Protein: Galactose-1-phosphate uridylyltransferase
Organism: Roseiflexus castenholzii
Amino acid sequence: MPEIRQNLATREWVIIATERARRPEQFILPSRGSVLDRPEYDPNCPFCPGNEELDLERFRIPASGDWQVRVVRNRYPALLEHDEYQRRLQGINRSLAGFGYHDIVVESRRHNTCAALEPVEGLITTLQAFQTCAAIYRRDPRIEHIVFFKNHGATAGTSLLHPHAQAVALPVVPHDIRVRNEEARRYFDDYGECVLCRMREDEERQQDRIVVSSRHFTAFIPYAAYSPFHLWIVPRRHTAHFLNATADEIEDLAHVLRDVLRRIYYGLNDPDYNYVIRSAPESERLARHLHWYVTVIPRVTQTAGFEMGTGMFINTALPEESARFLRNVVLPDDSTDNDYD
Amino acid sequence: MPEIRQNLATREWVIIATERARRPEQFILPSRGSVLDRPEYDPNCPFCPGNEELDLERFRIPASGDWQVRVVRNRYPALLEHDEYQRRLQGINRSLAGFGYHDIVVESRRHNTCAALEPVEGLITTLQAFQTCAAIYRRDPRIEHIVFFKNHGATAGTSLLHPHAQAVALPVVPHDIRVRNEEARRYFDDYGECVLCRMREDEERQQDRIVVSSRHFTAFIPYAAYSPFHLWIVPRRHTAHFLNATADEIEDLAHVLRDVLRRIYYGLNDPDYNYVIRSAPESERLARHLHWYVTVIPRVTQTAGFEMGTGMFINTALPEESARFLRNVVLPDDSTDNDYD
């Protein structure tokens, strides 16, 4: 029988559609060729070494010698850095000039790779670059909210093959974020604790939906996961903003995130995916009721009119089964994945 | 310069990304063959005449002779009609048994057609079938919310080619609907009027974003449209629930909706799309601050990590240009579209 479950943090209901549910194995994609089949260097790729868009560069890591990760302004930004900061009210319509930051984090020198195939050092450096970006954006008092994400593959919204992630800083707090944060505040009001901490502890006690855990993080499929293999990586230490993560936590997160991405890559045959780092709005970065975390969303199903008309998801996989499947993926020996020395 | 616009009804901010914006013509899809290339009858299609799943039938229109539209229970429903209605609290996790209605509206006898190519009578009958469904579901006091939608094409979430729409009745009010309705209530509190009425009147005065208007409806691209060609069809008469629409309004809506779908079909080369009828929750169907309407979402772009992490949309088309493009689509003579006598 289907079940309607509630996500405690967001209060959203999700239909777990057992009548149409598929076994985890049924989500494994047919092979579509490996990223390794691509050339290591593409002369037309603006992210490949030698083609660097130097006019757009914000910083590189390391600063001298061969860079490992570069942060560049987006050539086609959704938002522009400019001086105008003005809210407008024309008749009933509210708008503001599209000010903000929209950067690209080039994650590797190599064109033919992805996070699941790279040594962990690459992901550590990417996460460090995110933190540096946040520190830069934060100096601008007009910035209200910062979000980091990666789009892997065409159905996840990317058009450039060279591995890259993105950072966006906004002059508004998105409505959806405000609504979620209100729910977190209400939970804190009622119970005197953070809802994310509570959910993480509960998952650790139950163990059914845990995929990976480490010293600082727990990766689990939420009880009311929105889609098959939708996964949260929650830090054990309670703090509202990703920029509060210590160097030690960043390194540990890179290991856990890479482990999760490898389980998805090898277990499901390299599906497209998004990951997002969710953090408090800038003005609430000290809020006791907020908790930063990472969400990973493999793109193995399609949203349809129902989701658009209700905001409610139909998940055709049982979260407990999805977690067991990812836990049991046999990963190849790490050292065979790359030809770095 | 990009612009950040607010949708007055939902209070959501949308980035109108002029730096990456495309002209309306650039959204026209390459041709992928016509639905008319398919056979008119498919022996393996459960919706084709002769293959009817009679055990699943709820009703047909007309009741005798050749049916024009059939309503059948979904063979793989997201929710089941059953007697158990129970909320459960296990530890911190809330759930309820997956009770509800999930029906299919088979829109035509023909396998190789779509709403844009059919005579308007087909769409009138489909909308009448939706109303009959709502009247049936409403008799069940456990139903909290009813939604109608259509998924056209694979990227819009459909797997069966035979033209069909869907009806779902839920035992909960989706969180997203509650949040939107709270915003509508707040607007009514502040201004003593319905926000949808206000937006429709404003669009009619400005004319920039109107696509089609009729005796009872106005179809326009909202000022802060979420995606290219995202369109609302708003009834002029203020009422909260779709089931309150009169026979005259239903017939008029069919004409307007079909006109919009034809503009999308011919103008953009038959993209996948969803449409949704948004209506008040059952317990609020008399609410003065709520207003039913139809939203149409052509699937010409992909959502990515940014949308997932913020709930905020980046629209790469200027709403005014999208509206002008759809207004100016030259439609073929209606009578050439079908071979009905």
Observations:
- The longest helix of chain B spans residues 247-268.
- Residues 3-331 of chain B form a domain with the HIT family, subunit A fold (CATH 3.30.428.10).
- Chain B touches chain A through 77 residues (CB under 8 Å).
